[in-house]
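A quick aside before the break. I want you to see a complete sequence-to-structure record at least once, exactly as it would be stored in a machine-readable document. Don't worry about memorizing anything.
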Amino acid sequence: MTWNEIIKNEEKKDYFNKLQKEIDLKYKNSVVFPNKDKIYAAFDYTAFEDVKVVILGQDPYHGANQAHGLSFSTPKDIKNPPSMKNILKEIEDDMKRVSICEDGDLIPWAKDGVLLLNTILTVEESKPKSHHKLGWETFTANIIKTISEELEGVVFILWGANAIKQEKLINTDVHHILKGVHPSPLSSYRGFFGSKVFSKTNELLKKEGKKEISW
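That is the input. The structure line, written in tokens, reads:
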């Protein structure tokens, strides 16, 4: 099974046809992130069978040039947003070394088996969650269900209430869930810092006989 086959299957469904029309209009009439050719970038760097970890975000960054299709990630020449700074801080504290992605570009993680997926894949400039309920949530729920059904021993990292709602889609007899507060400055001090989510993920991968992630 490949992402191409999975996405093509979704494209045949009624909800997706409506979603596609809505999104085309949004790109035509307003400023939308990421660039249209980057909407599915998360699937470009991590082959379906190579997924070891899923980090679930909410929707893309809504500032100019920040979003490039991978949750929490920004292009390397963009200043790290607050959530990314907190993620890097926790990695340094947890792993006792700086992250391999200090520049905020998480493509190396993606190539290492981390699917960086948002529940909503597009957003209007300066309007967080503006594409909520257009149909993306159905699309990403189906992606999560497919991973749960077809793969084994995947670690799902769910940060914040929005991501935690997706745990019902995951078969915990086969997979692992690590959940906690979102790394944003609004909530990071309520349990994100000190959560040791990165070392815990690697411990679970080790138990599964999989190569650990170089965070």
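Two observations worth writing down. The longest helix spans residues 14-29. The mean pLDDT is 95. We'll return to this after the break.
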